[in-house]
Amino acid sequence: MDWVIRAIDFFLNREPFVDAPYFEDDFGRKIWYFADGEPIDDIQVYYRSKRIGRMRLRWEEEYLELADIVIFQTNKKFRGAGIGSMMFQIGVDLGRMHNSHAFVGRMQSETKDDWDRLVRFYKKQGCEINKNIFVYRL
Questions:
Q1: pLDDT band at residue 33, thresholds of 50, 70 and 90?
Q2: How far apart are CA 131 and CA 86, in angstroms?
Q3: What percent of the chain has pLDDT over 90?
Q4: What is the number of other CB atoms lying within 10 angstroms of the CB of residue 6?
Q5: What is this structure's pTM?
Q6: Closest Cα to residue 29, out of 18, 43, 13?
Q7: Which of 4, 69, 104, 115 has the most CB atoms lying inside 10 A of its own CB?
Q8: 28: domain CATH number?
Q9: Distances (CA, A) of 88 to 1, 8, 81, 105, 121
């Protein structure tokens, strides 16, 4: 009978735990997220009980650094759905809550197409870009 409950949770995309935080992507799907650490330094996002992305943060005295943000390649249907933007906004909100002056990070890419996509993404978020560094002033 346990498998029936797991199947229902999967197909209905029910919350993974009571009062679980979520946001909706551009297609109206509920994307659940789990934040860990004190202060929060690891955020993982889920859809239908499967992990589809992750954001890792580093806290410095004056700023919050985005160590990594990724929507996993195995979940291409989630690319371009606004999930990365919502994850970025969670980072901005955390930085503001902790009185950081900026949300910063380094852009790394293996191809020119990926580089162009990264630049577009961070500019769309409102970041200033200098070479491979982005800065979002809080």
A1: very high
A2: 24
A3: 72
A4: 10
A5: 0.87
A6: 13
A7: 104
A8: 3.40.630.30
A9: 39, 30, 13, 11, 10
| Phi (first) and psi of residue 26, to 5 degrees | -65, -15
> Locate tokens 């797991």: which residue?
6
Q: Which two tokens stand for residue 135?
A: 């800065």
* Residues 93-130: tens digit of each pLDDT: 999 999 999 999 999 988 888 899 999 999 999 999 99
Q: Which tokens sit at 122?
A: 């961070």
Alpha-carbon gap, residue 26 to 102, rounded angstroms: 26
Cis peptide before 21 (omega within 30 of 0): no
How many whole angstroms separate alpha carbon 120 and alpha carbon 135? Answer: 14
Distances in Å between the Cα of 80 and the Cα atoms of 18, 36, 74, 121 are: 29, 25, 14, 10
Q: Could you give the 3-state DSSP secondary structure of residue 38?
A: coil
Q: How many structural domains does the chain have?
A: 1
> How far is 111 from 71, CA to CA, in rounded Å?
17
For residue 127, the cross-strand partners are: none
Residue-number span of the structural domain to which 122 is assigned: 2-137
